[in-house]
Amino acid sequence: MTIQLHDTLQGKKVPFVPQKEGEVTMYLCGPTVYNFAHIGNARPAVVFDLLARLLRRSYKLTFARNITDVDDRINAASVETGKPIEEITARYIKAYNDDVAALGVRPPDVEPRATRHIEEMIAMIETLIEKGFAYEAEGHVLFDVSSNASYGSLSKRDLREMIAGARVEVAPYKKAAHDFVLWKPSTPELPGWDSPWGRGRPGWHIECSAMAEKHLGTTIDIHAGGRDLVFPHHENEMAQSCCAHDGAPFARYWLHNGFLSMDETKMSKSLGNVLLVHELIKTIPGEVIRLALLGAHYKQPLEWSAETIESARRMLDRLYGAVQGVEVPEAARAAAEVPEALIAALEDDLNSPKAMAAFFSLAKDLNKATDDEVRVSLAAQMYASGELMGLLGNDPDEWFSGHVEGDLSSDDIEALIEKRNAAKAARDFEMADAIRDQLGDAGVTIQDSRDGTSWRRS
Ligand code: AMP
Ligand code: ZN
Question: Do both 150 and 233 map to the same domain?
Fold first, then answer.
């Protein structure tokens, strides 16, 4: 079966046919590195890692995930903390990569950084000016939206309606409110590079257009990112790249993940309702978080709660429970195939919940099987499926003994309970409650009685 993907530009699910036979290029907009990633930021990293794993089965994939390391929020973080910009970006690039690796995300083939592609951005801006799609004004260079007839086609916006509805005060150097910045001037204390328009820095959108062109070529197969990026980021990337490349399509398929919310409010740094991956992985195994993120179809919204985590943990317990005690020789593992039903689910626009149902059906068959040879073969298929989904990477005995990275071991739990009892004895109830919550977040329920405190993993 061919892979079917939902393309935002066409507004429907379509068969995926790459530009070059046997090869695929994919670009995912990566993090802006001024802070730790929250669990919503991890969603695109995890779902498109799964897509990359699926594509690599059949194609030679070149997957680029960029790093935005020049941005006004980074400048603000530098002013706020008094730390040099390079120190901030280096710290959060490392944190991001460590965080997503803990969720089983494999490194992309290329991880371009905006600050290392300034020359390419300047060259693209020069081309856009030469071809009449951009203009210079007061040290800025702006993209002239009116010069691009198909502007608005990705986000399904009508430019005339947008102009009529615009209430924003137009900056004096802009010809029209919706013209967007390709280059802007920098003051001496801000990061800046010499350019034909004076010392300045790039706008956000041109970064991705230039990096995608450099590493993946004029037309890329798949461009991915979160829903919020459709407008203006991707609309603007598309306008810049198509105009710079004489109308050649920028991306053949546009994929966007839905938003993760908590208490029905979208998780966002600006709203302050964030759960940091960096914190979560201290007490929850990365695979549990990964499965929780894959628990809904990537296009759907995903509500994050303690129950989301608990249900993912229970599912993994079922998978590990099925393979526990079955010795699978290396040769059997290498020869094992992923069941058709699981592949078919992923090929159907990356339907991860349906793929997990196929995974469970395999676990059920294994639980029922009595013949040793059949059990080894089914367990080998489970490991092959785990390899594709990014799950089942731990030893089952270690999984159940709680010695999985990120999980609390039995010793850790006992030590926390002791600390909590000491806090209670000292009438520090705030501390005692905080420890109970910490245990609860890690899926450990405690019960106080006259004989002491007992605990169980839920
Ligand atoms: P940022 O670092 O803010 O540019 O975001 C990095 C990626 O995370 C982008 O692809 C965003 O679309 C995505 N993203 C941000 N918040 C959420 C959320 N609550 N749910 C899903 N994706 C998100
Ligand atoms: Zn981008």
Answer: yes
